[in-house]
Design goal:
alpha/beta; Spore Coat Polysaccharide Biosynthesis Protein SpsA, Chain A; three-stranded mixed beta sheet; globular; Nucleotidyltransferase family protein; NTP_transferase_dom; Mannose-1P_guanyltransferase; Nucleotide-diphossugar_trans
């Protein structure tokens, strides 16, 4: 395990419930977290990074082909505590999924990470990067963001602007923003207060945090891959092999 800097949390929620529609036809018979990249499923890459960083507790939400994903987690014999947040009855989206999982998450704050993430660390692992910037008194959430030049296979216009203090604001319509959200963040329980019921996007909570000046970003110092479609797999594998 790595890092002289204490982590902000020993717990991570892994978002793994979605349909993975952009990854079809590979997700016709398997959930996106089980799509193979560089010889192992996407979610295995995530668990490896979590363990290497020193995270020992995790919560995974499931919905699409949930039995298949749970069976995979069972045979992995992971060296960490893994709890399942079951959304079989209703897919709750990112925000609703966090709210449902909250009773299983004992730590405040906690890391939240998309299960389809592939990245190369910079001088420090991403969880240490975030922990270095985390300030519970000022922040409801701290998002790991990456500039376009270090975002492999990303075709979008970016997500956020950042001021000199690290506060985030949204991209303007029809404009390019310099930073892309990687799908990795630290979340305070305060962000989830008074949340809507049922399915909703985390963006609703982020918008409130932006208005209150409590949504911050930390810039990833390594490389990040947008593995959203089948065509992105081979370039990602090349990046992992040759750096």
């Amino acid at each position: 395990m790595s890092g002289a800097v204490p982590l902000a949390s020993d717990t991570a929620m892994i978002m793994a419930a979605g349909y993975g529609k952009r990854m079809r036809p590979l997700t016709t018979t398997r959930p996106k977290p089980l799509v193979s990249v560089a010889g192992k499923p996407l979610i295995d890459h995530v668990f490896g990074k979590l363990w290497d960083a020193g995270i020992t507790r995790s919560v995974v939400n499931v919905h699409y082909l949930a039995d298949t994903l749970e069976a995979h987690l069972d045979v992995m014999s992971l060296p960490m505590e893994v709890k399942i947040s079951d959304e079989r009855d209703l897919l709750l989206e990112t925000g609703g999924g966090m709210v449902k999982a909250l009773p299983l998450i004992e730590r405040d704050p906690f890391f939240c990470i998309n299960s389809d993430n592939i990245w190369l660390d910079g001088p420090r692992d991403v969880f240490t990067e975030l922990s270095n910037f985390w300030d519970a008194d000022r922040m409801d959430a701290l998002l790991l963001v990456v500039p376009h030049k270090r975002a492999s296979q990303h075709k979008g216009m970016g997500d956020f602007h950042m001021d000199g203090h690290g506060r985030l604001s949204w991209r303007k319509p029809r404009r390019i923003a310099p930073y892309i959200y990687t799908g990795i963040q630290i979340v305070s329980h305060r962000l989830l207060r008074d949340a809507p019921e049922g399915p909703f996007s985390t963006r609703i909570l982020w918008e409130r945090a932006v208005e209150e000046g409590r949504l911050f970003g930390a810039i990833h110092e390594g490389l990040w891959c947008d593995v959203g479609t089948p065509g992105a797999i081979a370039p990602t594998e090349d990046l992992l092999q040759y750096g």
